Amino acid sequence: MRKCLLVLAAIIAFGFKAGAQVDQKASYDFIERIIPGKSNLFTVEAIPQQNGKDVFELESRNGKIVLRGNNGLSIASALNYYLKTYCFCDIGWNGTNLNLPATLPAVKGLIHKTTPYQYRYYLNYCTFNYTMAWWDWDRWQKEIDWMALNGINLPLAITGEEAVWQSVYKDMGFTDKQLDEFFSGPAYFSWFWMGNIDAWGGPLPQHWMDSHKTLQKKILERERSFGMTPVLSSFTGHVPPSFKDKFPGAKVKKTNWDAGFPDVFILDPDDPMFETIGKKYIEAQTKEFGTDHLYSADTFNENVPPTNDSTYLDGMSKKVFNSMAAADPKAIWVMQGWMFHYNNKFWQPQQIKALLNAVPNEQMIVLDLYSDAHPVWNRTEAYYGKPWIWSMLQNFGGNISLFGRMRHVAADPAIALHDPESKNMRGIGVTPEGIEQNPALFALMLENVWRDTPIDADAWVANYAQRRYGQANGQANEAWHILLNSVYSGGLTEGGPESIIVARPTFKKYIDRVLTKLDYDPMQLAKAWGLLINAADSLKQSDGFQYDLVDVTRQVLANYASPLQQKMAQAYQNKDQQQFKLYSSQFLELMDDMDALLSTRKDFLLGKWINEARANGITDKEKNLYEFNARDLVTLWGDKESGLREYSNRQWAGLIKGYYKQRWAMFFNQLDKSLSDKTDFNADAFDKQVKDWEWQWVNKHDNAYTDVAKGDAVEKSKQLFVKYNAVILGTH
Q1: What's the rounded Cα separation, in Å, for the pair 616 and 627?
Q2: Residue 725 is inside which H or E element, if any?
Q3: Do 469 and 476 meet the contact criterion of CB atoms below 8 Å apart?
Q4: What is the distance between the alpha carbons of residues 719 and 708, in angstroms, rounded to a whole number?
Q5: Per-residue pLDDT tens for 192-218?
Q6: Contacts of 314 (CB under 8 A, 6+ apart)
Q7: Which terminus of the chain faces fewer neighbouring Cβ atoms within 10 Å, N or C?
Q8: pLDDT at position 342, please?
Q9: Percentage above 70 pLDDT, the chain
């Protein structure tokens, strides 16, 4: 009997081999990171998976909270469930409430949760640049903990990839100089990795490659310690420009992303070298980083294949997969389904079927990348039997905008799961181009992880407000109900509406890449603003409330910029110089006010972005290169003629006053002069002038922007409410 008890104790301590892997020390270390000094109030125990799916349990015993799970991820999810449900706490990017009761509340009975989803995917190639470009280990550690709390088990993990490519291509005889013409700067890796661009923002320093290879090892070790299975990268044919010279007999074709960058070179999968290089890459990557047999590959990301012939697409798909399987027979190809939406005229059912059916079903997973707005699964017979993942994209370019489709996110995953037409739906995912904004939307989406029924969005936002703000508040509840039915009932646009202030100066209501059309009544948002202002004295101690109040204030002012700009434009057309001066000065003043508001929160500081970029360098040359990358990505995106200008615009303190406002001031000065001189405004001359000024700004290293927040977020919001509320209400 004693022997049996010892065996039982060992099983509980180290996890059931059949589906339960709990590292006790790692779990207690995790709890200590989340709620310092409280890990001794919890007991961690292992239980096996249920029907092959992750599971957690929660109960009270002997004055402690017992967290049970089949891996570290399930233990973390149990902790998050406890903190949210029993302590009304909330852990997020933009404000965290961990104001725990003095005595932890007991759990009555046994809580048992099983996820209906085998896979819970996270990240998009673009997230690694629009948000994560400059992250160090401390920031990554926080994100991985957040992933664990929210049940993510399939994270994209592509940090440090360029170091593996360097190793592979050097072994093939390429020189450092040749690779300098290949590797992009660190803010542009996503599009380098996806085969869209070469070299822009480079040359890439060796220190970056070495330090980020080390960082990737830490990331993977931590993710795997929770029981996550990271998705690594693979070869999709993108080769250095000098490849065609080094191997003149190779089938290399030029392709262009059509965004103002030079051609890149893609090795045809028909070439025998394709499989050889793909195998070399997986082997080199596995040697450095290990493997969980999951590999991301998107051969035609925003590029159209040379032919729509099914035989070609079938053969190409087989060869891409074989290049993985040659090195790893257990390889599973994880494909972003973005191209099926982005180039939907090319990717008709016949072409999609040819691409997918070339690979065995259980060796491919398709990400339905944009299920929240433009699902593809429901027009492809659920990817013709392939395992696939319902995903929320939501954000484009890392733009700052209150936006989302909350009721869809609350209901559609569960509806799809139970739809007989969804066939082999294996999971849900979060695939945004940028994060660290709209925290409520992401929290709602991830609420689906441990349930298979639709979420009541109205009840959920009230509960969310209570745990985020640390107390129930009627006015906050009413404000959130308005937000749910306005900004968070977004239309079928590529992300949220931006503000005319971030546009290169114009008389138009919007320009390419800066869409200002609202899918909701801005007066409803103004009403929610008033309710939050009224609740401010009660809730101002909450970090999350401060963020939300600033964000709503920002959005109201960002929206107001449009009618103000149109008044300015009309006054100019009417040759009414007095009215023109009035509205143009009010427009510039609005930008100053927005900048001062956003200065109160670190979440909205250009200086934080720039200083984190510079911190990655060890020489002034490196620091300056990274600052160029940081400034360029969020403004021009490329050179002074870039067609992607403003794609990654941000409403940030420093960027508004130091960049957007300066452009508008130049514009207004020239317009005012043309009215005074009674001459026509020279749009071509201004265009050249502003492009030259933008390029100079992108190349500056003047230490002009702080990474320290200043001022009181609540007081500044109140001041702006007094100043603008009546004016804004008067515009409608």
Answers
A1: 10
A2: helix 713-729
A3: yes
A4: 21
A5: 998 999 999 999 999 999 999 999 999
A6: 354, 355, 357, 358
A7: N
A8: 84
A9: 97
pLDDT band of 19, cuts 50, 70, 90: low
Please give the helix or strand (H or E) that residue 44 lies within, else none: strand 42-46
Kindly report the three-state secondary structure assignment for every residue of 449-512.
HHCCCCCCHHHHHHHHHHHHHCCCCHHHHHHHHHHHCCCCECCCCCCCCCCHHHCCCCCCCCEC
Nearest one of 581, 438, 577, 534 to 95, comparing CA atoms: 438
Rounded Cα distance between 377 and 416, Å, is 10
Residue 435's contacts (CB-CB under 8 Å, 6 or more residues apart) are 93, 127, 131, 395, 442
Q: What are phi and psi of 365, to 5 degrees?
A: -125, 130
DSSP 534-560: HHHHHHTT-HHHHHHHHHHHHHHHHHH
Which of 464, 447, 470 is CA-nearest to residue 392? 447
CB 216 within 8 A of CB 290: no
What counts of helices (H) and strands (E) characterise the chain? 28, 15
CA atoms within 13 A on the CB side of 69: 28
From CA 485, how far away is CA 6, in angstroms rounded?
57
- The dihedral of CA 607, 610, 614, 616: what is its sign? positive
Which stretch of DSSP H or E encloses residue 426? Answer: strand 425-430
pLDDT higher than threshold 80 for residue 17: no
Cα distances from 528 to residues 488, 552, 560, 731, in angstroms, run 13, 8, 15, 17
What Å distances lie between residue 565 and 242, 519, 524, 616, 647, CA to CA?
A: 49, 19, 21, 39, 21
∠ Cα 720 726 728 (to 5°): 80
Cα Rg of the chain (Å, integer): 27
What's the rounded Cα separation, in Å, for the pair 350 and 335? 18
Q: Give the model's pLDDT for residue 308.
A: 87
Q: How far apart are CA 523 and CA 527, in angstroms?
A: 6
Q: Which two tokens stand for residue 328?
A: 């790893």
Nearest Cα residue to 336 out of 169, 181, 158: 158
Q: What six digits make up the tokens of 490?
A: 């977004």
Task: Choose among 301, 293, 294: nearest CA to 336.
Answer: 301
Residues 679 and 595 sit within 8 Å (Cβ to Cβ): no
For 664-683, letters b (16+ CB in 10 Å) and e give beebbebbeebbeeeeeeee
Q: CA 245 to CA 239: how far, in whole Å? A: 12
Residue 654 has a pLDDT of 98
H or E segment and range at residue 389: strand 388-392
Q: What is the largest CA-CA distance in the chain?
A: 102
* Burial grade of 624 (CB within 10 A; 0-12, 13-18, 19 or more): middle
pLDDT tens by residue, 510-525: 888 898 999 999 999 9
Neighbours of 288 (CB within 10 A): 14
| Integer Cα distance of 74 and 89 in angstroms | 18
Among 88, 154, 451, 449, smallest CA distance to 295 is for 154
- Of the candidates 526, 537, 551, the one whose C-alpha atom is nearest the C-alpha of residue 601 is 551
Position of tokens 């310690």?
A: 225
Let me know: does 264 contact 257? Beta carbons within 8 Å: yes
The helix (run of H) or strand (run of E) holding residue 569 is helix 543-573
Q: What is the dihedral of CA 277, 356, 266, 185, to 10 degrees?
A: -90
* Strands, sheet with 238-239, edge to edge from the N-terminal-most edge strand: 238-239, 264-267, 252-255
Rounded Cα gap, residues 553 and 540, in angstroms: 15
